[in-house]
Please model this.
Amino acid sequence: MNRFDLLNKVQNILKNNLVICNIGLPSQELYKISDQPNFFYMLGSMGLSSSIGLGLALSQNKHVISIDGDGSVLMNMNTLATIGNRAPSNYTLLIIDNGSYGSTGDQRTFTDEKTSLKNVALGAGCKNVVECSGEETVNALNKAIDDKDNSYVIISKINSGNVKIDPIPLNPITIRDRFRKFIGIVKYL
Amino acid sequence: MKISKKIIDNLKKGGVDFYLSVPCKLLANMIDILENDKDVYYSAVPREEEGMGICAGAYLGNKFPCIMMQNTGIGNSVNAIVSLLQLYQMPVVFLISYRGTPGEPVGAQGGMAKITEDILQTLRIPMLHCFSEKELDKISTFSKHAKVVESPVAILCDFNLMKDDK
Model:
């Protein structure tokens, strides 16, 4: 199972939640599978999906899923400490860990060598850390969303590999405003 | 404490209701005030760039965020400012303790001080440089300006303004 297969598998869960999606191929693949107004596609700022989702979860009550990658979490690893100490129960961080920098040509990341993001997250103070296969991710996500008392970090271990795909044609303000309209903030669209 | 209280009062008057900080000695009183303020959200964060991301999310969730940091933090955050806050036109207030300005005893702070305003200018971020107490009254209007123009804005609190705020 690669990232595209995984996103296909979890799309029905994503549709019912606020989603912050990592820059590059993850966003492009999700857009191709199913474009939704409650999906916030990152067009820049690699590493910050986890942080954007955390700020959103702290600011309103709907459940937030940050879709991140192993390369991106390695770039902003301090985020796990902030999540471990501050994440509310309406927050789930889904790390799609394929051991590679998919958007830049599948170079290996350190999670393909010695680094365990599960151990890093536990050490950073995250309590509910689930490492699972791609197939098990649907159940792990459902459990995280159903648990109204705890936040979760899910590390979904899958294979590397990408599908051929185009950049997202939406402009950033469209992504911003339809997302905020979905939450109920923007009234003019 | 008087200066710090006035700064926070003016930010709140400007509508800011979500605060993050990466600590600085000059921000210590403001952090104390915010930690005891039940009306607004406050948290420390380990790194400024991450704070920019959290602020972006808070804006999406209808908060008006502020990140408090040293001017060195701007250097840590340039890509997040340009490719996230400015790309999606998100209002965020940067409350910056301006280390390395005349009066600063730590020489090493001078390097970032020399280029701080140049960086902000290059980024086209509106700036309010507060040298003395009388400038603090402009903070609330300046904060509201961020929302009007949908842009980050920077408030620079000079070393000399903050150093005696016991």
The interface with chain A takes residues 18, 41, 43, 45-47, 49-63, 65, 79-80, 82-84, 87-90 of chain B (CB under 8 Å). The mean pLDDT of chain B is 96. The CA atoms of residues 49 and 115 of chain B lie 18 Å apart.
